[in-house]
Specification:
Helix 1 packs antiparallel against helix 4 and helix 7 packs antiparallel against helix 8. The chain has about 210 residues and is mainly alpha-helical. Bound molecules: protoporphyrin IX containing FE (HEM). Protoporphyrin IX containing FE binds next to helix 1, helix 4, helix 6, helix 7 and helix 8.
């Protein structure tokens, strides 16, 4: 398998694996399990928090599952109307999930460090989503591509978080200490990588840059 194909398969598998993960909250009673084990009974019985939580994980899952397909130039060229439809679903999903994510971030386990880490992620996620959408409305294609690269790098925080958390447990780092650090490192390095990809693509001619997206 070529390097590029391998990376695409890995990219898709991560997106699909984490994208379907929220389904567990619909299939299993999570009271006393995982993240919910660290929540107070008052918070768990709050209808507003509950609604926001399910809104966040459902639309976050849809964003994760749909977003990765949009980066293939081949798919864009062949099925432009599908790209537009999936794009609208993606933009709306990120909007709903980030607003709900911002709300549940206020109650994040791990205190102020996690509150700031996750709310910073939620605001950056919403901002890049709006920028990506408004740039395509104005038909600024390059800007649209660049904002979407940044935005999906932030969506991918859901993947990086779920890689770092088990690694921190293998390294025997206390859960809450790890969670505080991860609430930041799950997204800030992703954004830096997005900037590196954007500046690398800016150095190559347009035709080649498009082929490289496949
Ligand atoms: C990129 C922006 C995102 C932000 C700002 C964000 C924010 C949050 C916050 C604040 C929590 C609760 C943490 C706590 O209470 O300690 C959470 C949990 C969760 N989020 Fe997100 N999230 C994002 C992306 C996603 C995506 C794309 C998905 C879809 C897969 C997702 C799925 C979940 C799930 C399933 C949980 C429950 C925790 C668990 O069981 O692991 N999130 N998120």
């Amino acid at each position: 398998m070529k390097n590029k194909t391998f990376l695409w398969v890995l990219f898709a598998l991560c997106a699909l694996g984490v994208g379907f993960y929220p389904a567990i909250y619909y299939l299993v009673d999570m009271h006393g399990n995982g993240l919910w084990a660290s929540k107070s009974p008052e918070l768990l019985s709050s209808a507003v928090w509950h609604t926001a939580f399910y809104m966040h994980i459902t639309f976050g899952g849809i964003a994760m599952l749909t977003g990765w397909t949009q980066f293939s130039q081949k798919l864009r060229n062949r099925y432009l109307s599908a790209h537009r439809l999936i794009g609208k679903i993606y933009v709306a999903s990120v909007m709903l999930s980030s607003i709900a994510g911002f709300y549940i971030a206020m109650f994040a386990s791990g205190g102020i460090t996690c509150v700031l880490g996750f709310s910073g992620l939620a605001l950056s996620w919403l901002f890049t989503d709006i920028m990506a959408y408004t740039s395509i409305i104005k038909r600024r294609f390059k800007d649209h591509e660049n904002w979407m690269i940044r935005n999906y790098a932030l969506t991918f925080a859901a993947v990086t978080l779920r890689i770092y958390l088990p690694l921190s447990q293998i390294a025997h780092i206390e859960f809450i200490t790890a969670y505080r650090v991860i609430s930041w490192i799950c997204w800030v390095p992703n954004l830096l990588i997005a900037e590196m990809i954007i500046s690398k693509r800016a150095q190559i001619p347009v035709q080649t840059a498009l082929v490289q997206a496949d």
